[in-house]
Amino acid sequence: MIESGGSVLERHNVTVIGSAAETLVLVPGFGTGQSAWRHVVEAFKDRYRIVLFDLTGVGPGSQTHYDHVRYGTLDAYVRDLTAVLDALRIVDCICVGHSVAGTIAALASIRAPYAFRKLVLLGASACYRNRGDYRGGFDGADIDGLIESATRDYLQWTASFGEMVVSGPADAPAVREFVATLRAMRPDRALSLLITILQSDVRHRLAEIRVPAVVLQTSHDPAVSREAADYLHHHLQGSVMEVLDASGHLPHLSAPAVVIDALRCHLS
User: For residues 24 and 44, is the Cβ–Cβ distance under 8 A?
Assistant: First the structure.
């Protein structure tokens, strides 16, 4: 179901489920589309009006309007998110963002604080790189290696990256799904977006965020270090943090029951 708002909603493949008074917005992270939230949707569709969409170039179904220059920073994604919320006239929503989408949602709350009542940041990071005393998880050599291997053989890279990020064997359903969605993306756009994400650093913006936030982090996340999650928690005023009894960067796919239980505790 697509509500009014014309091209903005069509461009981002917006789906609205239910008609409850309270709105839950679910934003997918790198290499996943809105279908990655299906377990969460099933658990909460009777309680919330749920809004799902794909950020440009992030999900495999929303790449037509991707522009390498415009989307060279996270600012364009922030504008996209606020445009969708404004098109649907959403205020006081709970927004759950996975990975970089959590960062995007946090920045969007600065731009449009009226739209958000609470942020839930699942596997999010303010900065993925190690910089000085800050431990984001990736050195420059790590990032160079990721990009070089992806450029050399994209299909092989998706397989190894999928296993690493999901923290599972190649035949695990969550790994297979993540690899398939990565392969549905155009390699040049996937790599451009990956570089944008890994080079982003929004630590200086965290003090501007006033919307209450929940940081959800798995006990072992190969994409976001525990130090990075702790930094996010400590620099978001009044935030709470829960370490999930799960591993990997996509627990809503690999351990959905754990994520659903955590959301039940924190959404109210």
Answer: yes
